Amino acid sequence: MKTQNGMVDPGALSRRDTRISILIIGVLFFIFGFVSWVNAILIPYFKIACELTSLQSYLVTFAFYISYLVMSVPSSYLLRSVGFKKGMMIGFWAMALGAFLFVPAALIRAYPLFLLGLFTLGIGLAVLQTAANPYITILGPKSPPRSASASWASAISLRVSLRH
Questions:
Q1: Which residues pair with 8 in a beta bridge?
Q2: Do residues 116 and 67 lie in contact, with contact meaning Cβ atoms separated by under 8 Å?
Q3: Torsion-angle region of residue 14: left (phi > 0), alpha (psi -120 to 50) or beta?
Q4: What are phi and psi of 30, to 5 degrees?
Q5: Tens of pLDDT, residues 37-74
Q6: Per residue in 93-142, pLDDT tens?
Q7: Which end of the chain is more exposed for a tag (fewer CB within 10 A), N or C?
Q8: Residue 127: how many CA atoms within 13 Å on its side-chain side?
């Protein structure tokens, strides 16, 4: 199953292991979406709790998504040096650190500390997404997609985009 350099060969995984890995990645994508969605919910509560202006409250979204811009390229270097699995763990630890920063921020109502927590959470998500996207393609089948299904997908996509 493992090669000489300690890496797992995806072709050597059993069907069960492949399905479990794909299920785990699917749960990860749910977490990505959930954490991103919660940001929009946080804005009015931050505005009330920290007595912010509208401009200040929208820094929540800015602090979260700017971390993707900041961390996108460095995360590829990180993943190249530590691998996908360890990179995902580093991303989870960064997310946990960002979430834990909310505790002292809430106790002292320090908005900059909330923003730092959101930024750190975003860094963790950027690393996780950078690792998860190629990892799921590695787990997929080696054969190219069927031309008929690819044609239908392209036709439906074109039809939907032309409607709007």
A1: 2
A2: no
A3: beta
A4: -65, -45
A5: 888 888 888 888 888 888 888 888 899 999 999 998 89
A6: 999 999 999 999 989 988 999 999 999 999 999 998 888 888 777 776 66
A7: C
A8: 27
Phi/psi for 3 (5° steps) reads -90, -175
Question: 53: which 2 tokens?
Answer: 């202006």
Tell me if residue 23 falls in helix, strand or coil: helix
Give which of 53, 46, 130, 60 is closest to 98, Cα–Cα.
60
The token pair at 1 is 């199953």
Whole-model pTM: value is 0.74
For residue 108, give both structure tokens.
């002292």
Cβ neighbors of 156 (< 8 A, separation 6 or more) are: none
